[in-house]
Design brief:
It is globular, with a radius of gyration of 13 Å. Helices cover about 55% and strands about 10% of the residues. The protein is mainly alpha-helical and about 100 residues long. The longest helix is centred in the C-terminal third of the chain and has 15 residues, at about 80-95.
């Protein structure tokens, strides 16, 4: 959301800090899957909007939620990562038995 994006920028710090300093296996896995590892030491303010959205998504998923709803914006803004997102959903469903749903319009 716009509010989450704004809050992340207000926090400042690096991508590493924004991803919880990679303290969990889930956060490490997600950083690699979303291709954020080359950006870890960059300030959050120095990355693109698409990269910020990936950071926000990785941050949200690292809490291992029971339900994930991805709207149509995620599919288009992460177009280069669409294959990764599909495989992530498959892995997520297999490991957690959680419901993951991607809405398309």
């Amino acid at each position: 959301s716009f509010e989450a994006h704004e809050a992340l920028l207000a926090e400042g710090g690096t991508v590493y800090e924004a991803c919880g300093k990679l303290q969990t296996k889930a956060s490490k896995y997600l950083v690699v899957r979303f291709g954020l590892h080359p950006l870890l030491w960059r300030p959050v303010r120095a990355i693109s909007t698409g990269e910020i959205r990936k950071v926000l998504l990785a941050r949200a998923l690292s809490t291992r939620p029971d339900l994930v709803v991805l709207g149509p914006r995620v599919g288009t803004e992460l177009r280069p990562s669409r294959r990764r997102a599909r495989s992530l959903r498959a892995v997520w469903n297999g490991r957690r038995g959680a419901a993951a749903r991607s809405e398309t319009r």
